[in-house]
Amino acid sequence: MPYAPADSHVRFALHPDHQPAVIATTTGPTADAARSHLHDHGFRSTGPTTMVLARIDHEEPHYTAQAAEQLRRYGFTTEIDPALQEELDTEWTWANYSMPWCSRADVREVGAAAQRIHDDIAEGRLTIHLHAHDGHTTVAVGSYKEGVRRHVHLHGENHLRQETDRTFATEAEAVAEFHRLYSVTVRPGPAPLTDLEQAVRRLRTGTTPSTTEETSAPVAEPPAAEPGEHEAFLAALFDDENQWEKYRPFDETTIASHESLVVRAEFDHEARRRTDIALTIAEYDGPGGERLWHATMTTGTPVALVHTMLQYLDTPPLTAREAHAVLRDAGWHPASHPTHTTWTAAGAIAFEHTPHSTTDRWMLYGGDDLDRAAWTIRLSAGVGGDLLADLVSTATTLVAIPTPAPRQAPALRLPAAEPRPRAARR
Question: Is the Cβ–Cβ distance between 261 and 287 less than 8 Å?
Fold first, then answer.
């Protein structure tokens, strides 16, 4: 049916601080009608003339195109910023999507369902009673308040969160089954918001990180070792600790052997580049026996992590710990992929478990760009869970540093993780 012209103008542009979120600016006598249509498409008001579309599935350009098309059919004048138009002309695909059998339409449908769950929770239509971690991702139990009361179990985070196939007649039944499934891992209330959920809610409410309590402290990039810092630290350690005996068979290599004769460390003095291996450590099942496991550290590995590993090898802890429990307690966020699980903290450091790998079973890495890590620790199969727990415990203190301190001379003795979608042009 024909529509009367609407004397209003709507301009769409990418959000300057959180792409691909979209800002819509409305002007004209019938702007209120335009804003009503935009609200139906997921835009939320952030000011008298501005609305924002921020989603957890990174599909803002797709839904902006739908909103703009509807506004034009209703007679509104629309304008799309060139940078946003480029996004509209680009079909995004998720890197390492955990359901690779899904078509692009299927991926978008899964994301839309996750967005509805996110909105229902944020706007009070779905109350979360309990949450837990099933070893791979976050799970939860909740109840819908409006319409036909439904009690459901949820599985996954961000753009992958879904309802399970089973619904329950009563809240008590849903909660009892949740306790049966997840036992001691059950925690009260909803799980802490992921970094993406926090960002989306800040954008929708028109707040900024500087005005929200939860993000008032800047997150520092985990420190990386400076050139010469490893060498100075290891020289002091091996000179002071009588249980280590070192020798330098070649100019470029120092080898240190522990008095137990089952631990050996090799330091490369020539390692300079970001990906160069500076330190290799191995443990054996006896003097001259088979190697149990080994680890490598690149040149930028923080000295605190080097110290943690050597201290563990010298004096193993008396109490057993599990690395994933340390990460969960510290608030790191897991993401499961077909071949591995990655835990991240504040986007600056990650701990990766690849259960089918032998040489790189575990990997700890960090930097301001995790796709091009500033430093990496790789550990083979056979490494003890206590050592992994010690390493990630130290790593949690690195990402908790509120601001980077000015770098002093090398300290010689120290005390004891939604990939950005990648583009494929049409």
Answer: yes
Determine the pLDDT at residue 209.
Answer: 46
Q: Which residue, 340, 337, 376, is CA-closest to 355?
A: 340
| 309 closest CA partner among 242, 383, 239, 248 | 383
Look up residue 375 and give its amino acid: W
Say if CB 389 and CB 382 are below 8 A apart: no
Give the mean model confidence (pLDDT) for residues 64-78. 91
Go through the chain and tell me how many residues it has. 426
Q: Which pLDDT does position 81 carry in this prediction? A: 92
Mean pLDDT of the chain: 80
What residue spans define the domains of the chain?
A: 9-92, 104-215, 229-399
pTM listed for this prediction: 0.50
Tell me the CA distances in angstroms from 255 to 33, 237, 279, 299, one per residue in order.
Answer: 74, 13, 10, 17
Q: What is the pLDDT of residue 215?
A: 38
The distance in angstroms from the start CA to the end CA of the chain is 33
CA distances for 207 relative to 48, 119, 198, angstroms: 15, 18, 11
The C-alpha atoms of residue 138 and residue 135 are separated, in whole angstroms, by 8
DSSP 8-58: -EEEEEE-SSSTT-EEEEEESTTHHHHHHHHHHTT-EE-SSSEEEE--SSS
CA distances from 291 to 295, 298, 382, 383 (A): 11, 21, 9, 11
Lowest mean per-residue pLDDT among 83-97, 268-282, 301-315, 319-333: 319-333
Measure the CA angle with vertex 420, ends 418 and 422; round to 5°.
135
| β-sheet with 9-14: strand ranges across | 44-45, 50-53, 22-27, 9-14, 77-80
Q: What is the CA radius of gyration of the chain?
A: 26
Q: How far apart are CA 97 and CA 136, in angstroms?
A: 15
Q: What phi, psi does 382 have (nearest 5°)? A: 100, -15
- Look at residues 263, 267, 319, 307 and name the one whose alpha carbon lies nearest to residue 286: 263
HSE toward the beta carbon, residue 412, CA cutoff 13 A? 8
Higher-confidence residue: 42 or 370? 42
Decide if 375 contacts 299 (C-beta within 8 A): yes
User: Which residue, among 356, 362, 358, 354, has the nearest Cα to 379 in the 3D structure?
Assistant: 362
